[in-house]
Amino acid sequence: MSDETPAREPIGEDARIDALEARLKAAREREEKRTEPHMQGADANYRSGNRALADLLGGVLGGLVLGWLFDWLAGTLPWGLLVGLALGIVVAFRNILRSAKQRPDE
To answer: For the chain, is the Cβ count within 10 Å smaller at the N or the C terminus?
Structure first.
């Protein structure tokens, strides 16, 4: 049976297949262009979230350190620490709100 010719001849290249491949390629390119800005938007959101986290941590930790340093120098424990913490939180939220009001392309 292996010596016999196949029952059907293989199908040669068809213009419809070439047209279909060209249409598929064009559709893939359009889809890549369509979804590309969304990737950049997600990246921008990730960066703004990291910036907000850094502002919050930096403000709180900076206020704590400066308040503790003031207390250590002046001997007013715990008031300098508490005031420094409160000021750090205020500054952190002010920075977060300021960066939220900025336009994304700035």
So the answer is: N
Give, in degrees to the nearest 5, the angle at Cα 31 between 26 and 34.
125
Measure the CA–CA gap between 64 and 97, rounded to whole angstroms. Answer: 21
Helices (H), 1-106: 15-74, 79-101
Q: What is the phi-psi region of residue 75: left when phi exceeds 0, alpha when psi lies from -120 to 50, beta otherwise?
A: left
pLDDT digits (tens, 9 = 90+) for 12-51: 678 888 889 999 999 999 988 887 765 566 788 888 899 9
CB neighbour class for 21 (10 Å; exposed up to 12, middle 13-18, buried from 19)? exposed
Domain definitions of the chain by residue range:
15-101
Task: State the amino acid at position 14 in one-letter form.
Answer: D
Query: pTM of the entire structure?
Result: 0.59
Tell me how far the alpha carbon of residue 26 is from its chain's centroid.
Answer: 29
